[in-house]
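Researcher: Next sequence.
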Amino acid sequence: MRAGAFALVATLLLAAPARAHGPFHELIAAANERVAREPGNPAPLVARAELYRQHGDFEAALADLGEAARLAPNDDTVDLLRGRTLVDAHRPQLAMTFLDRYVARHPDEPAALLERARGHEAMAARQAAADDHERALLLLPHPTPDHYLRRMRAQLAAGRNEAALGGLDEAIARLGPIASLELPAIELELEAHRWAEALARLDRLAAQSPRKETFLARRGEILARAGRREEARRAFRAALEAVAALPPPLRTTAAVVELEAKLRQKLRAPRR
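Model: Next structure:
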């Protein structure tokens, strides 16, 4: 595999950044053997650089990427890989030199925008990070909940709270009412004192769950924050009833015991 396929190798590495499996010394030994077996091929160097990056040996990774760039001078994908490695190495200013150059040439590549967003975040450039996340989400063909949550966090850091909530609704419409998306949406509704909207989201989650005690307790907390104290007490009592209906093995778990104690404490609190 020569320089023409280097971009494909790098793209696959960027698309699947999971940790390599197996002891590092065995993986690096195999990578060293392949580099020696295929002199002049940048792909083994890129693969070994990824192993070094995952292991935290950033200087070795950057050395391999530099050699890969020398072998494939017409393939600029190494800029993207260098940028990612430098962000991991806590050198975001230098990383941006490579990431900006790559994005300028490939403005519609979501992986590049996401990597540059990481660089902006490392430099506390919150507005620029949010911009890159928003652009990347428009371009990703199959975004995951994590992509949406990363955008949400960037938007919140940039003070774009309404955009963050709207983005979660977009994700829910596309992926369904997933708890990891609905729960932060509930928190944003509560921050804006939109009690009815928060309760509606909570009810959607509760409808999907066979166990109701946690949702009823949370419902009581929201009603209490909204000043609807009698309704809150009814929700807390309903949560206690749901706890009492659990089979003994579930009712005696630490989490349920703690929840029951918390509910009883709330019901003992004086009415105002």
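Model: The longest helix spans residues 229-244. The CA atoms of residues 120 and 238 lie 47 Å apart.
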